[in-house]
Design a protein that fits this description.
The protein is an alpha/beta fold. The chain has one domain: Rossmann fold. Helix content is about 45%, strand content about 15%. The protein contains 7 helices and 7 strands; from the N terminus they run βαβαβαβαβαβααβ. The chain has a 7-stranded parallel beta sheet with strand order 3-2-1-4-5-6-7, with helices on both faces. The longest helix is centred in the middle third of the chain and has 29 residues. The protein is globular. The termini are far apart. The structure holds nicotinamide-adenine-dinucleotide.
């Protein structure tokens, strides 16, 4: 078991990559705190995990809220007594329009949900991990935060995901001496609700941007998150880890 008895927070767990990660991590022995906006989805996922003899509790909330970040940590401590890892994965794409047509509300929303939430999550998680001198934090960035890859209308999303890489590397540098590793996962196009699931024209367009001529499924991304949260990646910190079917080299 890769995550035997590790207590791990997953945000964005109600769907897509986060839900796949929850099922995979639970099967690998993790004790999970599941977070996202929708209670019913989280409740169903936690029930499914428990039916399969896994351990999971949940708390719905908004990752833009500092109190929610702290409440997820408090829940992990109350239920499991410690916090070993966090997969800070919740995110939104926002309006896919050029900057000249983009409203400030969309810009602010994308930055808040994707980037400010990462800051708030780390701020709540690090003191607890520091106390035990161990922990692994993984942010879900995107290939778009590294290399646009040919996707139009990505300005706010790309800025938020690139910002997340800078934040991650600063955290990695600041806390390597505390036994805390901090990394980012940079998925390529992944078949999820946010990635265009159920919209064949979008899926086809995005698949063809990838040298592999397909998109990832959520489990393939979850496997990389598992590696970063497990002790197998014990010498990996400050790493922006591309799991992108080669899309980032397309325009290189
Ligand atoms: N699907 C892709 O092609 C792709 C590619 C690269 C990166 N990503 C990133 O992967 C992560 C997961 O996305 P996904 O594709 O699984 O999408 P998804 O839409 O299936 O899941 C998004 C999750 O984030 C949660 N969420 C969104 N806003 C929230 C908020 N304000 N507060 C709390 N939870 C919130 C949702 O409840 C949901 O659980 C995101 O950060 C996304 O940017 C996705």
């Amino acid at each position: 078991m890769e995550l035997e008895d590790k207590s791990i927070i997953i945000t964005g767990a109600s769907s897509g990559i986060g839900a796949a990660a929850a099922l995979l991590f639970a099967a690998e022995g993790a004790k999970l705190v599941l977070g996202a906006r929708r209670t019913a989805e989280l409740e169903a996922l936690a029930a499914q995990i428990r039916e399969n003899h896994g351990r999971a509790v949940f708390l719905a909330g908004d990752v833009r809220d500092e109190g929610y970040a702290s409440a997820l940590v408090a829940l992990a401590l109350r239920e499991f007594g410690h916090l070993d890892g966090a997969f800070n994965n919740a995110g939104i794409v926002g309006d896919m329009v050029p900057v000249a047509e983009m409203g400030i509300a969309n810009w602010n929303d994308v930055i808040a949900v994707n980037l400010t939430s990462a800051f708030l999550a780390a701020k709540a998680q690090i003191p607890v991990m520091k106390e035990h001198r161990q922990g692994s934090i993984v942010f879900t960035s995107s290939f778009v935060g590294f290399s646009n890859g040919g996707l139009p209308g990505m300005a706010a999303y790309a800025a938020s995901k690139a910002g997340m890489i800078g934040l991650m590397q600063s955290l990695a540098a600041d806390h390597a001496g505390d036994g805390i590793r901090v990394n980012a996962l940079l998925p390529g196009g992944t078949i999820t609700p946010a990635g265009g699931a159920g919209q064949p024209a979008i899926l086809d367009f995005v698949a063809n941007l990838h040298p592999m001529k397909r998109m990832a499924n959520s489990e393939e991304i979850a496997q990389a998150a598992l590696f970063l949260l497990s002790d197998r990646s014990s010498f990996v910190t400050g790493s922006p880890m591309l799991v992108d079917g080669g899309i980032s080299v397309r325009l290189a």
